[in-house]
Write a structure and sequence with these properties.
This protein is an alpha/beta fold and about 400 residues long. About 30% of the residues lie in helices and about 15% in strands. Helix 1 packs antiparallel against helix 2.
């Protein structure tokens, strides 16, 4: 999985998932050749790699033992983690997608990793209990319809999407989209606390936490929910309820395409040619989880924009790990935390291979980006639940 020898990093994850689905165990060699996967040598796996265009090497038993011995050395920042179960994956996304693409859905399909889609009905009916891993599609959980009102209130797709959301809320017994979305968020929160893995990108990250913090408080202006917001809602925000963010200020103006001070987009001064973020370096033996999530063939990854591009560093809770950051901008791009028995990862930006994706832009063709380090971070999270849990020392 290094930069020099792997022709298709993204499909390599699909091969690994395919092997796990066949009930074969895989070793993920953290920090060894870009986070290589050690699979059993079978004719079927070799053939599958050849079909999918994935580079591989066949090792002798002696060579394998030598590699594992070197990795186990206390002098090496490496670790072999056993993957033993193909996680069942859910993507939270509406049936009629708006005219932009979901990076996670695209990379799952490109890597040939199976997933199922869920939305509000399934979530509210406890459908998440069937899944190990959940991705939150580009979404607004606050009931403000993506804060697109200022620019797109007259656009047919915006009007139609707003009507669909309101109809769905009424169908499920809610008078407002915001209250329906809050119950969805609370169900997802409970799913994570109970042991689920949640991954979110772009506006699903901050809007999720904002919805949690504003439970029982009306933060929506009349054009969103038909009545006035609570005039003093900022003072009532409860940061103790959030997963990742704290001490943020909400954006009250409905014409501004922004939810809060969490997002760094308006504050960024970096040109596209210099926009990169760096992955943090963790101890593979002592911190295998963040090490796993940061596996890549480069430590420096080109940035990309989104409604929520990145996170204000001083508004991230102290118990949340920053996995990737741009120090120059004082922003975190990629963060991870624990909630109850489960885990969550937030990844800022919309599409790792489309710097400034706009409504109506053509979809990204991943065939042109088979070695994308930005997309690799997504797939690290997909395989993360497959890792064998080590017994804690007591």
């Amino acid at each position: 999985m290094d930069a020099e020898t792997q022709k298709n990093h993204l499909k390599a994850y699909g091969i690994t998932y395919w092997a796990l689905h066949k009930q074969l165990k895989v070793n993920w060699l953290l920090n060894y050749r870009g986070g290589a996967f050690l699979l059993p040598d079978t004719v079927d796996i070799q053939k599958e790699c050849q079909i999918r265009g994935v580079s591989f090497e066949v090792l002798s038993n002696d060579k394998t033992e030598s590699i594992l011995k070197a990795i186990s050395s206390p002098n090496q920042n490496m670790e072999a983690v056993i993957l033993e179960k193909a996680p069942k994956i859910a993507v939270y996304t509406p049936s009629g997608k708006l005219p932009w693409d979901d990076a996670v859905t695209m990379v799952l399909e490109y890597a040939e990793i199976p997933y199922e889609t869920v939305y509000d009905e399934e979530v509210l009916n406890d459908g998440l209990l069937l899944f190990d891993w959940l991705h939150l599609h580009h979404e607004d959980f606050t009931g403000q319809f993506g804060k697109f009102y200022g620019t797109y209130k007259a656009a047919s797709w915006y009007i139609e999407d707003k009507k669909k959301a309101e109809d769905l809320a009424k169908q499920m017994g809610y008078s407002k989209v915001s209250t329906e979305k809050l119950d969805v968020v609370l169900k997802i929160r409970d799913y994570v606390i109970g042991g689920g893995f949640m991954f979110a990108m772009c506006s699903a990250t901050d809007s999720f936490d904002i919805a949690l913090s504003a439970e029982g408080i009306d933060i929506c202006e009349p054009m969103f929910d038909g009545d006035a917001s609570d005039a003093s809602y900022q003072n009532k925000i409860d940061y103790n309820k959030t997963f990742a963010f704290t001490n943020f200020t909400l954006e009250r103006n409905p014409l501004v395409y922004e939810f809060s001070s969490i997002d760094t987009t308006p504050k960024r001064m970096v040109p596209q040619t210099a926009d990169y973020f760096s992955l943090m370096d963790f101890s593979a033996k002592w911190d295998p989880i963040p090490t796993m999530l940061c596996q890549n063939h480069t430590a420096l990854i080109k940035g990309f924009m989104g409604q929520t591009t990145a996170f204000t560093r001083n508004e991230i809770k102290s118990n949340v790990l920053v996995l990737g950051e741009n120090k120059t901008n004082g922003e975190a791009k990629y963060i991870h935390g624990i909630k109850g028995k489960g885990f969550f990862t937030f990844y800022g930006g919309h599409d790792p291979e489309d710097y400034q994706h706009r409504v109506g832009d053509p979809k990204t063709e991943l065939e042109l980006h088979p070695t994308s380090p930005g997309y690799r971070l997504i797939l690290n999270n997909v395989l993360f639940p497959a890792a064998k849990k080590k017994k804690q020392k007591t």
